[in-house]
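Notes from hallway chat w/ T.B., transcribed later so I don't forget. T.B. wanted the structure written out for a chain they're using in a teaching module, and asked if we could keep both sequence and structure tokens in one place. Agreed to drop them here.
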Amino acid sequence: MSIPSVTAHACLVRLFALSVFTISALFSSAALASTPNPERLNALANDPYWLSLGHYEQGQFGAWRSHVDEARFFLAEYGDSSPQAELHATFKALYAPIEHTDNADSHPQCRYPARTRWLREQLQLSDLPAVKCSEFNTWMHDIAPHSTVLVFPAAYLNSPSSMFGHTLLRIDQEHTQSQGSAMLSYALNFGAIIEGSDNSILFAWKGLMGGYPGQFALLPYQQKMAEYNRLENRDLWEYQLNLTAAETQRMLEHVWELKQIRFDYFFFDENCSYRLLELLEVARPGLRLTEQFPLTAIPADTVRAVQEAGLVVSTHYRPSRERELLSSSADFSAHEHNWTKALAADAAAINQAEFQALPAARRAAIQDAAYRLLRYQANGNTRDQAAAERSYALLQAIQSNPPQPLTISRPELPETGHHSRRIQIAAGSYGDKAFADYQLRMAYHDLQDNQQGFPLGAQIEILKLSLRQYEGNQWQVQHLDLASIRSLTPQTALLKPWSWQVRGGLERVPNNNVRHPERTELVSHISGGGGATWAIGEQQLTFAMLTARVEHNPDFAGWLEPAMGFNTGLLWRNRLGNLMAQGQADYFLNGGVRRSISLSQHWETSPASGLRLSMSRHFAKTPINELSLGVHWYFY
């Protein structure tokens, strides 16, 4: 009978059709799974987290731009200006086939682990190709990120790149806190790449104008700590953050994406501190840190923002070598200071009968201070065999007669200081003319500003503009300081640092018109000086400097006129605030002489405000007096 064979054939046909339908359905499901709704992708392109991964910023007219300045960071042709195009390109790239197993580390999933993880979570991508990212996995395993510490090396005036302080992140392993040692931790740093040997002026100019590229670097924390704490003699502040292990790992995934990727580096906004805030926003979505700094990102201000965001759990202070040395010898007599210098110069002096006659406790303290002095003097120098032998001899003496543990009082937290920008409104008189003065300073601190959180005798002012309105609605630019830096570091029995100052910009000076001495000229100038500062009490500094000045003055015959002079004065920290008295003079090559004396008292009315009373007398062709009372507000 043929009927059974026909029936069997029909069954086979039906089975084949069912199989084709099933396979087609499976492929259709996979296609749907890997092709989400375009509206969903467009919505994700505007997600704050995606914008953080691309370092995007929206301009005033709605256009997007990325702070990343290397095209190879982006997968889309216009990925630097289109978050949407970059997201679509990333989604497509994650499904790229693995053609060569040996080259798996170049697959987009391996190049962009943070993007991959986030898109997998948001779109529930269960069908991505299985890629083994050996390089990334090994890198992450070696770092073993578990927690994060924000590190703030305090300001250091003698280094142009360190005048405002610096911030970096420390990545700790799981047992770092319990073991009390960061020996295995890593430092995550963003810094300018400086090739060649630019002088300080060119360095400052290129830093202001974005002339240096910047990129992230990950290196052993002990190495970075030695650079700041030992070589540059900077105090370190370590802020333990409450980021979880998952958040810390998420941040490191993005750091891998930024490996060898360059940004333009600007000292005042797109700098080390700003970039670290971006990383913290990647670690914990929802943080809104960078939007607080649209113009400048001074490190101390960013530390304060992190503190106010509730991220800080605890704070640890590491004093610099300089502070350790000065603290260890703070109670020394002149005789003991002399012994300290003698032992640092020749360790054999330990065996002298006169030294051995000192009480054991004093010998121990002097030996310890001499060792610290010797290490301080070796900062930044190549290894010296004679110095190494003296250090070893002093260490042996210290081991035989150990000193008391060194106790160093912790300074005020840097983030407790005033905000970096300042507005001033003042009223006063110049000669017999009344005026109102309006001033804006972009950064950072002068010698008389509210002192909390700042070292006494340090001034860094950038972009300070003063407009003056006289009677009759007469307006004029009083001064425009591009930069004004003063470092009044007191000399001690063991350390003899130079004090110095530099200033440049526009300012009004008395003219040479005898009939109209109240008239002034707006001149451009660069001036500076060097000398010494001495502490005459715990809160009083006196200083004296020789100065030089180059000035372009319409009142002079020459286009540029040089001058030599002096600047001396007293800075006194009192119950009200800081008082400043100073005298200065410039003696020009053309015979012109300009002298002045001034007295100013600043009252600290609140952490965010102050009052300042200033009096001065200018000696030109005819002496003229100036008096003003101003109100200051600090903000950022």
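Follow-up for T.B.: The first strand starts at residue 56 and ends at 58. Might be a good example for the class.
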